[in-house]
Amino acid sequence: MAQTTSAAEPTRRDFLYIATGAVGAVGVAGVAWPFISSLAPDAQTVAAGAPVELDLTPIAEGQIVKLFWRGNLIFVRHRTAEEIQAARSAPLTALRDPQPDEARTKEGKAQWLVVYGNCTHLGCVPLGQQGEYKGWFCPCHGSIFDTSGRVRGGPAPINLPVPPYTFTSDTAIRIGAEA
Ligand code: FES
Predict the structure, then answer these.
(1) What is the catalytic activity of this protein (predicted)?
(2) What is the CATH number of the domain that holds 163?
(3) 3-state secondary structure string across the chain
(4) How far is the CA of 137 from the centre of ligand 1 (A)?
(5) Which of 9, 35, 152, 177 could link 13 by a cystine bridge, Cβ 3.0 to 4.6 Å?
(6) Number of domains forming the structure of the chain
(7) Tens digit of each residue's pLDDT (9 = 90 or more) over 23-71
């Protein structure tokens, strides 16, 4: 029997399921929220908060993927040149929680933004590439984030935080471990 899903509701394809500490290839997906297939979750590994490895090569420019680390939603965004420029040209004086974009990304890797994926107001999941700054828009109470994940409007008090992570190669990161 066919199932229908409201366009306003996230579908299973919106989420990236992490099985163990390692992530395989991104599935073929034509939308901005690619589904990444995985093996059966290893609950003990997840509960232990083991670092999560992510191969970045399948993530196209302009895409955002979601994954979970330590039970927290994480966004990994492959930013376009325009999105980087927008983030870096914003005056700090215009920011509620002033942080330069350079401090939120790794040196030489400005195209990659990794942030926690829950709104810093009350924890809803903001929608990517939406809102005045085309970063994220939180549909719950209207918080607006820019392409650096910094709050630019609405009730959210602080930026989307950056989790600890490190590049293990030019095209892979490990979330949960600093260099
Ligand atoms: S939870 Fe996002 S604006 Fe309230």
Answers:
(1) a quinol + 2 Fe(III)-[cytochrome c](out) = a quinone + 2 Fe(II)-[cytochrome c](out) + 2 H(+)(out)
(2) 2.102.10.10
(3) CCCCCCCCCCCHHHCCCCCCCCCCCCCCCCCCCCCCCCCCCCHHHHHCCCCEEEECCCCCCCCEEEEEECCEEEEEEECCHHHHHHHHHCCHHHCCCCCCHHHHCCCCCCCEEEEECCCCCCCCCCEECCCCCCCEECCCCCCEECCCCCEEECCCCCCCCCCCEEEEECCEEEECCCC
(4) 9
(5) 35
(6) 1
(7) 443 433 334 444 444 444 455 555 567 899 999 999 999 999 999 999 9
